[in-house]
Amino acid sequence: MKSYDVVALGELLIDFTENGVSPQGNPVLEANPGGAPCNVLAMLNNLGKKTAFIGKVGKDSFGQMLIEVVKDSGTDVTNLVEDETVHTTLAFVHTAPDGDRDFSFYRNPGADMMLTKQDVMPEIIKNSKIFHFGTLSSTHEGVREATRYAIDVAKEHGLLISFDPNLREPLWETLEDAKREISYGLGKCDILKISDNEMEFMTGTSDYTKGVAILRESYDIPLIFVTLGKEGSRAYYKDMMVEVEPFLQETTIETTGAGDTFEACALNYVLEHGIEDLSEQDLKDLLTYANAGASIITTRRGALKVMPKPEEIERLAKSR
To answer: What DSSP letter does each residue of 105-142 carry, written as one string?
Structure first.
């Protein structure tokens, strides 16, 4: 028996998001716990799964806040390390009128990128069913080594590997570096969640079926999800392509955490149904549920602390 359903490695940080204007006319910024891997785990916790996180924060007030929030969400923080000298990573999120975002990072360095191979506890990985990661843990040499070590441990012990490129262009010295690390992840994963802009970045085409074909020429990825924002999502599995329209909300505030919520719902379905023999209806059910979860989070500020409950998602998913 495995102790965890999903273990994730990566960034944990504070997202400063806009939340109104002060009486003096200045923008008010709210300190929201963030970081894609822990957002995914928080949603999985809501769905009744057991999770663990591998990462690093600063030994400062923001780091302590993050440790407590992640722990309170239900995620095991045994391998969440504190750095004695480097501060917790910060991100400032500017939200456009349509809910889309721009990021400015204070991460030169930030504690999340100080994770080392020696910090990683292999027993936690061995005792999980799925290992999940992105590319923010591959932007710099030390944390890149830690990430690759963790992936090797996961592969050695038969875990399914889940990968979300989560491209954040300002964090890379060059976009060629980003392409190289995304390519590495593509070569290791069994489950890929890739956004429309990331697909175009990696394949040079906005024809996503053609893009998937290009990826499949180089990488053996059994299950691929392409998230299309306001256009919904697709699943590519064996010779099937299934597309499901989104649940658009009039009360959308921002899209922070939408992809992470989708990812968690998708992984939850895989945990419950496996990855070996999915039908077209299975994929439709998966996408409908994941789209509903992603839609709900867009109506809330932040992500990690406000992930939707299963009954909310089920209600929306059945409303169509």
So the answer is: EE-TT-GGGG--GGG--HHHHHTEEEEEE-SGGGSSHH
pLDDT at position 98 over 80: no
Residue type, position 286, single letter: L
d(CA 87, CA 110): 6
Task: Look up the pTM and report it.
Answer: 0.95
Distance of CA 74 to CAs 22, 51, 256, 278, Å?
34, 7, 21, 29
Residue 121, pLDDT > 60, answer: yes
Q: Which two tokens stand for residue 52?
A: 């663990």
Residues 6+ apart with CB under 8 A from 296: 249, 261, 308, 312, 313, 316
Angle at the Cα of 172 from the Cα atoms of 196 and 79, rounded to 5 degrees: 90
- Residue 231 is given by DSSP the state G
109 preceded by cis ω (within 30°)? yes
Q: Left (φ > 0), alpha (ψ -120 to 50) or beta: where does 168 sit?
A: beta
Tell me how crowded residue 62 is: count the other CB atoms within 10 A of its CB: 19
φ, ψ at 235 (rounded to 5°): -125, 135
Asked whether 125 and 153 are in contact (CB, 8 A), the reply is yes
| pLDDT for residue 129 | 98
